[in-house]
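Re: export button greyed out
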Amino acid sequence: MTQNTMRLTVNGKAYDVDAAPDTALLYVLRNDLVLNGPKYGCGLGECGACAVLIDGVAARSCVIPIEGCAGRDIVTLEGLGTREHPDPVQQAFISEQAAQCGYCLNGMIITTKALLLRSPHPTEDEVLEALRHHLCRCGAHIEIMRAAMRAAGHVVEAQT
Amino acid sequence: MTGPDTTEHRERLQGSLSVVRPASPVEAVKFETFIKITADGSVTAYNGHVDLGTGIRTALGQIVAEELDVSFARVVVVLGDTALVPNQGATIASETIQITAVPLRKAAAQARQFLVARAAERLELPIEDFVIEDGLIRGKDNRSVSYGELIAGETIRLELADDVPVKAVSAYNIVGQSIPRVDLPAKATGELVYVHDVRVSGMLHGRVVRPPYAGVDAGDFIGNSLIAVDEASVRDIPGLVAVVRIGDFVGVVAEREENAIKAAAQLKVSWKPVPTLPDLKDIETALRANPSTPRTLINKGDVDAAIAAAAKPMPRTYIWPYQMHASIGPSCAVADYQDDHTRVWSGTQNPHHLRTDLARLIHRREAEIEVIRLEAAGCYGRNCADDVSADAVLLSRAVGRPVRVQLTREQEHAWEPKGTAQLMDVDGGLNADGSVAGYDFATRYPSNGAPTLALLLTGAVPHTPAIFEMGDRTAIPPYDYENLRVVANDMPPIARASWLRGVSALPNTFAHESWIDECASEAGVDPIEYRLRYLKDPRAIDLVNAVAERAGWKPRPVRPEREAEGDIVRGRGFAYALYVHSKFPGYGAAWSAWIADVAVNKATGDVSVTRVVAGQDSGLMINPDGVRHQIHGNVIQSTSRALMEEVSFDRTSVTAREWGAYPIIKFPEVPDIDVLMLPRQDQPPLGVGESASVPSAAAIANAIYDATGVRFRELPFTPERILRGLRGEELAAHQALPPPESRPDLSRWQNPFAGRRGVFATAAALCAAAIGIGAAVLPWRAIAPIARPDASVYSAATIARGQQLAALGDCAVCHTSVNGLLNAGGRPLQTPFGTIYATNITPDVETGIGAWSYPAFERAMREGIHRDGRHLYPAFPYPHFAKTTDADMQALYAYLMAQAPVRAETPQNVIAFPFNLRPLMAGWNALFHQPTVFQPDPAKSEIWNRGAYLVEGLGHCSACHSPRNALGAEKANAYLAGGFAEGWEAPALTSLSQAPIPWSEDELYAYLRTGESRFHGVAAGPMAPVVKELATIPDSDIRAMAVYLASFNEVSMDRAAQEALAARLESSTGTRASAASGVGARIYQGACAVCHEVGGAPLFGSRPSLALNSNLHSTAPDNLIQVILHGIAKPATTDLGYMPAFKDSLTDGQIAELATYLRRQFAPDKPAWTDVQAAISRIRQE
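Workaround output, generated via the alternate export path:
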């Protein structure tokens, strides 16, 4: 333990991290904890690629230093589920083929999860609002919306 | 039976069947492999193209599985590793399925043919009798043999043949099925390794520092603009490994990524002045002035004569802006430089071409370099993926270890080779019967291939601009005009530019399809019917008719005047294109046609694309869902480009460096999309990666014309452009603001504890001042130093009480330097009179206050006199501390003496004459200081008096929140009327507050306790640490402070009234209903709204409401500018969350636009701030 050691709880496990307290959570998750889910997109909290859950609320890990995360419960995409046992939200995104390059996918899934945690049966407008500040450049919006609606328990009609 | 673990089994597994072709001499290997089947029956397919997120990995696997008659799951597709895959050129022009899959398919068929023939021999059965299922060949007699068994231990290599029969489409089982993409389960669970996720043992982190000519790559200044790199400027960065400089290439390498980021931000680099760019706000002028070489693509009939004779001349000009690829993930690469084998993990779209560039960069043979392609963020053309790969190689070579380089968002935005601006001139005309007399089309396309940046920056390739002949894509219109001439004016780049989805075809089609729509309108013919008169391609005609039918197109020979629903008018537009790409004359990808429905708000200029019917003839669709998703993606991305995308420049560089300044479409703006895919499974497969983008802009422009009767010939269709078009050139004036108000009278409240001074008192004070000057020659008597007192004489309770008082007094806030030890001093305080350094107040005997007796401490606190007799400056707020009771003073002393001593010399103050004459302070004290202990006001309540003691005493609130006079003393008659501290405004805390909702006791309490008031905002700047310090003060004292401060706000408003007013202010200033018109509004939507828009989805931290925020309603923009520039890195409590700093992402001009917009939007009853830009540059300097 050095002066900089900080304890973080990520995906249910405690980690002691040696990093300056002002280090953005994103870099610690990716480099120290070897988690690939959260992605660097803008460093300004604008695009949403870096989203994680902090105490069950969506958070942009590129703008939150680890000193703000002490004593909080952090969950990343990896903490939701695995290929073998995906979270229902992840499964909905896989079922709807809701990605092209998939770089934004982490944020889309995390935010949908956060929405469902606070509102288990959101309307379409609520889903749109939740995803508003998540950018997708490939134009997978239609599939992402279908996936989020499906995860929210709506019946999504097949496309013809 | 042979068990899987026996030697015999393992030997059998060594055999393989490959289909290959001879490799080029530059390769380290003799053969390029397309298909390899191993003895265990697994199939690997190799393709030189890469998956840019479009799903071709899955589609190629389907093609191979189909042709080989194996299950889809058996096939592994390897893409883009230069050591493994054939060199098939760059992944461009939607060619993978249409072109590069062809040899792969043949290779699979060839392998199958070989194996079937061998099976016939082995089983002695005729080929016609075989049934093949998942690589198992079965004869009619039910005997069978697998591919693996046929290969066994042999190494079989077949040279790829061109004349192998492939399977009939009618026999397809796998191709044509919507097989789910193989990559998505891993992507959805964080298990896929993107290039950003590559971790190599011993890997370091690099960042590059780019030159100031951001986004420009042609000119003699490229590669020789660097003057100096000051390595000392980053010496304090932990784990810094190297600063690398080669020509204009500058990079840093550190052990940890965050330290590489810090080093890149902190490194001082000086550059030569940057040459001026043409004014790219005026694309048309800039492109006309750019030198060009005409290249005639077609010249049919007698164009000049036909147009000269036309009854109705139709000359038109269409303008396309610079646009971005705008990949969501800035480019990243890892390189491991080794003398004989350098490996580069890259997100490139052209691994082999990149390898050639890298060989040139580091003077190595191509065979010594391996480019390993991993998935990256979608790129849609040439982004910075190659640049960053080369950067990583240079940094790895410099430090001798693997280095990962991640470009910043700002670098990707500024430097990515843009989709170029383009200018399309049409000369043409109609005959009297409405038919087209002639079409004379000229396009100007300034672009090169955007050479890999490190080559230019290091001087490895010359900076002379190359010219790429790429303006010719779909330059020939699809219509059979009798007199037709098309000229491509090839020209060098202005800004760095290369290909972006749809390349020049999208702009060219914008012109072709707008112009024919204009002609139809002139001729009084339905726009679709008019097109069909000139369209000869039967598949095109089928598609156009099918799309018209699907959308329920109603023929409209004359544009009907659209009935408005309120401010909204609706319209519908058509456009068609066959995307013809690749080197001229090129060839066609899929056919595409759009019918777009728009809603135009005539009051705001906002255009919404509500629905698109997108029809496509893709030939054989390998994976129909994959095709559908490509159509969706193209429709959404190109709608975004048409409506809102335009790169901004100043006169030296790209200024759009984040998503506010370069917005892309958001979920609520996405149109409904109805995809119509023509069943053409009997036709060869065509590229579908770009086609559906090509008709977009024209279809939307035609729909806007249908809605409004106004023709727009320049993109993007922003609200400002639409309003200008609807109202003529007259700019839609923003709602006028109220005139600037005169400076408010601050003398509303008198400090209740300031003594009144008459003429005599002032005269006496002036005398004292004179004595003070006199005293300069007679130094004050020092109080003798003592041995460091033993803190153990004080009780723990006293020390704890002292600690609270120290927190109330914010001792540590001023007496601790940034990243310094607590109370060890050294923090510079900027005052109007000079820089004063806070002293060391730890009990170190030599450098701190360890030698101070209590009387010396008390005298300093009450009279502002140092132990040695020098006067202290009132930046140290002793006029307030003097009010402290003896008991509290002793407790504070006890606490300070109980700290660990820290040896730290305090730097010399830098004070201008005459303020550097400390004895003058005696006069100052006589004028402004009353060294008396707090006396309660018997007329007031106990709690009020308690609050007054805390606020006026150690709390010293008015030291910042009251204005000061010319001599730096608080103005007693403008008590708490607002002041400035450390570049931040300390707003009025009285009824003079500019906040729209007056301060109340409860809100003051909430703010001081939690750092946030729902009706005012969060503590930031110098106030954040104040609230943080107050955390140890009991609720009752915070409440008392709130009671006292609230007494200077005579307007009382109960909670319900506050809530109602807040709701009214928030709803009247909400931005959801209005169009994002103007730069400021767009930056707000892209950068601020995510955390500040009322009603937005919850995010970690608070959501300060801008409509209520004191700073937006203040007479000074300073706090708003401060917080935009520097963010909130140290909030009062972590629950409040953090705000990023935008100083490196937004220009002064953009911040000025943003601040002006925020003021207008959220404080609409307040006058506009003046000189915002000057304030920004002043605050940046501070």
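Residues 973-1181 of chain B form a domain with the Cytochrome Bc1 Complex; Chain D, domain 2 fold (CATH 1.10.760.10). The button fix ships in the next patch.
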